[in-house]
Amino acid sequence: MPQTRFTKEFQDEAVRLALTSGRSRRALAADLGVGLSTLRHWIDRRREREIDDPPEERQEDMAAELKRLRRENEILRQEREILKKANGFFRQGGKSMRFKFIDVAKESFPVTRLCQVLGVSQSGYFAWRSRPASCRQREDLVLLAHIRSAFARSKETYGSPRVTRELQAEGLPVGRRRTARLMRENGLKARHKRRFTRTTDSHHAFPIAPNLLEQDFSAERPNEKWAADTSYVWTNEGWLYLAVVLDLFARRVVGWAVSDSLHKELALEALRKALAIRRPSEGLIHHADRGSQYCSIEYQAELKKHGIRISMSGKGNCYDNAVVETFFKTLKSELVWRTVFQTRAEAKQAIGRYIDGFYNPVRRHSTLDYVSPIQFERLAR
Questions:
Q1: In what order do the strands lie in the sheet with 238-247?
Q2: How far apart are CA 130 and CA 203, in angstroms?
Q3: Which of 105, 168, 190, 314 is 20 to 30 A away from residue 67, measured at CA?
């Protein structure tokens, strides 16, 4: 019997009986007067239509399931973000720290969800909020304002020891542990330093002087020991090279110069500036590495002309000039690595502001009992 004789309603009813009656398809096909292959074809076509265009009831079920899955996914996402942000609070322990986190994070997440994830009750949180702040909490708020101010003045480079000294200098009785706690709780973290790469060219025929310092960087007075070295700063115009001379007594930069190329005149310019500013007496020890700039005839002659004793690092030993290496690490972590310099002139201006406006007169040094180089020299007079 040709398939075209059966209406769509007849085919739908035959498929419904085949799927719901429980009878075998062969017996059902015989009763309906259709071939078994024809009945199977109707069933397959019905299933294909349901996949491409599911019935309204099934569409509603799928929409509800999708909505449920999206809601669960949003809950999981919120819980993951809450735990990620609360990590620091968990390390500090205590319910009060969890309540503090909820108070901070409630703008981003529902309070109900925050309490569930952190394992505290909503009633406990609201009771905590309604309690008046203790005397110590009010003091913490005042200290935190001063801490934020000191941290900002340092361009976010000071850790808790230097910030503590800043607050103590302002007359605030605060210890390092309390400062560290407040900084940690409020995400005030100094930037980490990166590794420093040296650029010393020691493959030359110039004479090498002995190491007079032997890693003894202490000095009893200004202009007793100087240390010099060179480094580099990247700009969008190319490398800018920096040479400095430090007085080891106060870790003060007494001479510096920059250039677009690494040559002996760069180191000489920094040295001559230091000599003009400090006018040291004879007997000063000048220490540098074995770079060709410092071993050159012209540089050595300038030192000898002023009666300066010449000292040089051991071969490949960066620790022999550790003070200047430390200065370059500080400069790069607090300025260079946080800035994209478009031109060499821009980098030179920034370096000048950092050295003459911050490092020498303001920045607190741990080796100087947390005072600046200029202040240390004044106190030593």
A1: 252-259, 238-247, 225-235, 285-288, 309-312
A2: 72
A3: 105
